[in-house]
Amino acid sequence: MFAVDDDQNQFFADYYGVVMGTSHQEPMMRSTPNEFSYEGNGTWNYETNADNINAYWKEGIQRAKPYESLITIGMRGFGDMPLSENENIQLLQSIVNTQQDIITSVMGVPIETVPQLWCLYEEVEGYYDDGLEVPDYVTLLWTDDTWGNIRRYPTQSERNRTGGAGVYYH
Predict the structure, then answer these.
(1) What is the DSSP code string of 107-124?
(2) 157 to 63, 140, 153: CA distances (angstroms)
(3) Tens digit of pLDDT for each residue in 62-101?
(4) Calpha distance 148→107 (Å, rounded)
(5) How many Cα atoms are found within 13 Å in the side-chain-facing hemisphere of 16?
(6) The model's pTM
(7) DSSP 3-state percent helix, strand, coil across the chain (nearest 5)
């Protein structure tokens, strides 16, 4: 909980040139599930608690606004589980659209100028393969399967996106 443990963490990271971000399960500059357990309202279920989750995310972007950051978008279920029991591309697409609106309203600059990434991990990779739309200015982040096996590398066209693409290894 980098931004919560010490209120000077973000300031000093920025001062020393460290660009902060969050992991694939921690969207909008918030530490989830840890931070949500302390500061969130209701359950981590977007279908039943969207207003509280959106407010939680907005606070994360407001807190990070003065500092150079790489904002993770998307959403996973609580504890890094799938968002829902069934494939729900439309729900995740709606979440990302809302996140883009929050980022735009808080940052006050064109959305494509705000560094963002979306980790296409586990079921979300399948959603992407099935047509989930990721804005061109968002970095696509591919990952291993947590056992060291790279699941997929970015294609040439994905590497040529405005936001680019990359790979991380657990």
Answers:
(1) H-S-GGGS-EEEE--THH
(2) 34, 11, 11
(3) 999 999 999 999 998 877 777 776 768 899 999 999 999 9
(4) 36
(5) 7
(6) 0.91
(7) 40, 15, 45
